[in-house]
Amino acid sequence: QVQLVESGGDLVQPGGSLRLSCAASGSILSIDAMGWYRQGPGKERELVAEMTSDGSANYADSVKGRFTISRDNAKNTVYLQMNSLKPEDTAVYYCNAQTVARVAGANRYLERWGQGTLVTVSS
């Protein structure tokens, strides 16, 4: 199976920065896309940023120019550098990975979610 473990959420003042990390582990053969989603209070979960294995990145319009996604494929880890944070960035941030893993003797496509890490932007 595949597990995702996130870290880096915290309370930060407006204008501040945070870096989220998400490490994938398990019987992983390959990882296609890895990304970050968020769910703010009373809102639906939305895509923040995602990156394919070849380094192509896609960002939500609301975070372009402020957030940067990166990957370390050797470590099966994805990062989200968040700068110029705003109160409206407050949310639980979830890591997502689309993987091929070895399960019960067969290669399986598995999409996995992390447990979420809370980012609070407030003065």
Please describe the topology of this protein.
Elements: E1 2-7, E2 11-12, E3 18-26, E4 28-39, E5 46-51, E6 57-59, E7 67-72, E8 77-82, E9 91-103, E10 106-113, E11 117-121
Parallel strand pairs: 2-11
Antiparallel strand pairs: 1-3, 3-8, 4-5, 4-9, 5-6, 7-8, 9-10, 9-11
Structure description:
There is one protein chain. The chain has 123 residues and is mostly beta strands. It is built from no helices and 11 strands. The strands form 2 sheets. Strands 2, 4, 5, 6, 9, 10 and 11 form a 7-stranded mixed beta sheet that branches. The N and C termini lie far apart (41 Å). The mean pLDDT is 96.
Task: Give a brief description.
The chain is mainly β. The protein is built from no helices and eleven strands.
- Return residue spans where pLDDT drops below 50 for at least 5 consecutive residues: none
Number of strands: 11
Bulk shape: elongated
**Annotation field: number of helices:** 0
Strand content: over 45%
Helix content: under 10%
- Structural class estimated from helices and strands: mainly beta
What series of H and E elements makes up the topology?
Answer: EEEEEEEEEEE
Distance between the termini: 41 Å
Rg computed from alpha carbons, rounded to a whole number of angstroms: 15 Å
Sheet having the most strands: 7 strands, mixed
**Average pLDDT metric:** 96
Protein traits:
mainly beta, 7-stranded mixed beta sheet, 4-stranded antiparallel beta sheet, 11 strands
